[in-house]
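Chromosome partition protein Smc structure dump, as promised
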Amino acid sequence: METEREQAKIQLDIARSALSAAKEKRLQEEYQLALEENRRAITLQNQQLEVEKQRAVRAAQLQEREYNKAVIRTRIQEIDDALVQLATVKAPYPGTVKRLKWQGQDDRLLTVELTVDVDSPTGRSSPLSR
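structure tokens r here:
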């Protein structure tokens, strides 16, 4: 009877050890699962941060592009305004320009000597300086 009782006690101790080991194993598995969930959450968060960063970079690029377009449009308008202010010269006679000699410039006024080969009504050309 005494040996049966000790045998039962040994079996009980073995069962308790197995239960304790199973509990420890279960806690370890739960810990590993929690770690894996945290890793996944961190990975997802990093991916979301990267997407937001890319969106911010793209928005900055678009804003810079729009700014550059505005600068170019402004410069084109300035050039168009400058072209409007330029005077044009129309020849009073049909002919060919042979020579231009710059005499000078005063503010927006240019002085030029123009030599024109004028076509005559007879088909011959005669030089005319103006």
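The two ends are 144 Å apart (CA to CA).
lmk if u need the other ones
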